[in-house]
Predict the 3D structure of the following.
Amino acid sequence: MSFPAIQEQLDIITGNVVEVISVNELEQKLQASQKTNQPLKIKLGADPSRPDLHLGHSVVLRKLREFQDLGHQAILIIGDFTAMIGDPSGKSKTRPQLSAGEARENGKSYFEQASKILDPEKTTICYNSDWLGTMGFSDVVRLASHYTVARMLERDDFERRYRAQESISIHEFLYPLAQGMDSVHLKNDVELGGTDQKFNLLVGRDLQREYGITPQVCITMPLLVGTGGGEKMSKSLGNAICFNDSPADMYGKALSIPDTLIETYTKLLLPQGEAALNNILSQINENPRAAKRSLARGIVASYYSPEEAEGAESHFDQLFVHKKAPDNIELFKLDQQSISVIDLLVTLGAAASKSEARRMIQQKSVVVDERKIEEITENLELGEEPKTVRAGKRKFFKVALKKHF
């Protein structure tokens, strides 16, 4: 196998990272790899507690893909065993624990979605229950003997909770030890993670040393800020662009980011050459709207195709620039001639519950045939002609009386 020159690899690997511990060790590992013609083993741990991936996850996945493209071995660890402990990173209270079945099922979904970025044929996928699940109590005691409580309390979130006299369960101390044991088992050369994973990555490095293994290099990546700005991207906060969003939703959400995030999103999310990157960056000051549209097209093209990105942009322009309803709206045929708008929104799937439907009407985000619905008690009368219903900014439906169709 032929690897690129060492400096070329270093330039790619250290691009957009927050920290490398340490660059000198990374260079030494790359030199040994080139000398022996053996790829480095690059580990990324995946928490399957939330199976829906968003662009925040893509930041570290793209770094793993860069290692793949340089000829190194990508190892994706599905933490099905550690998910049963619950990662306390950045949390003020214990995370809910998953069952083994839930963790495995979520892990499969994680890999399928991650394959939109990684080369699945060149990705080794492992489940850490295969080795952690076989450890007996005496093994766990020996593992725990390699780390002190004082070192554990150096972790920021543990220290905050300890000072605030909030409870810390003993099993939470086992999470970083279990994740570190993954590195001991795999003998990997490098581990990737977000900045919130730095402590866990360093524990893996320490445990490898304790077990007589050359310590891994730790590389941390920035946490992506969500579409609203301020807080990191999270589906629960409603500021996420998800891998499985439709092209239209992905495009529309990308356009909603503040101008201050255009450069960060462009650098972290777009797998493109220097010329294309500089083209967007050069537009930010002169024409931020054009830069943001280029960014949005690039994001959609990364997960779908350039053609679907163009289609998503046309769809957006039709709705929000030309103020026209889309052409291909699904027709729902209903049996009843009269239905309350609240029940209609739930039936169409535009609202998850009646209370959500009420909120949508109160926020004046429900429109029927260009007329805003303002009364939560209003009924809709269906006749021979279909009616167009818009719920929110992007959800369109046509409804009609079944007997006429």
About this structure: The domain at 331-404 is CATH 3.10.290.10 (Structural Genomics Hypothetical 15.5 Kd Protein In mrcA-pckA Intergenic Region; Chain A). DSSP finds 17 helices and 13 strands in the chain. The longest strand covers residues 395-401.
